[in-house]
Design brief:
With 167 residues, the protein is an alpha/beta fold. It is 31% helix and 22% strand. The chain is globular and about 45 Å long.
Length: 167
């Protein structure tokens, strides 16, 4: 069975403009720079074949910054999934389990606390920061088996990174 790599990415730093709904909060200038830095890191380490992304503005903008720094070919497929916005660990795991087995590298872009809780659930004994993922923080997990077998304790962390750009 081919090993699969799952990258969890917490969205980049967002602004909190008055009167703007949470789902519509945009990235801050630092957030845009950090998203590009995350893309540069991923381009050197794990280029995703598929992206599962929350539909919020800040996660979509994070993805666009990441995508701008990835190699042009092949361009990953992107799915915006509502359950990644308000979902808990079980919702995120369900989304991962539904991925086609032909995909060997998956990027999931979401929000805290769920994205950090998922990282801990996948590798409870891993060397992760007890405070969880910072904005634009990434964890790379390796899964031996089909996506449908992804469950708590099944995907150890093989790399971590907190992307920071120049802004």
């Amino acid at each position: 069975m081919t090993a699969r790599r799952l990258v969890l990415l917490r969205h980049a730093k967002a602004d909190t403009p008055p009167g703007v709904a949470d789902e519509d909060r945009p990235l801050s200038p630092r957030g845009h720079a950090d998203a590009h830095a995350a893309g540069a890191w991923l381009g050197k380490h794990v280029v995703p074949q598929l992206v599962l992304c929350s539909p919020s503005k800040r996660t979509r903008q994070t993805w666009h910054g990441v995508a701008a720094e990835l190699p042009d070919n092949p361009e990953p497929a992107v799915r915006y999934e509502r359950r990644l916005y308000h979902g808990d660990v079980d919702d995120l795991l369900a989304a991962v389990r539904e991925v086609e087995d032909a995909v060997t590298s998956l990027l999931l872009i979401g929000h805290n606390p769920s994205i950090s809780r998922l990282a801990f659930a996948l590798d409870p004994d891993g060397d992760l920061d007890s405070d969880g993922l910072r904005t634009c923080g990434l964890t790379v997990h390796e899964l031996d088996g089909p996506w449908s077998s992804c469950e708590e304790g099944s995907a150890p962390v093989t790399a971590t990174h907190t992307a920071r750009g120049d802004s």
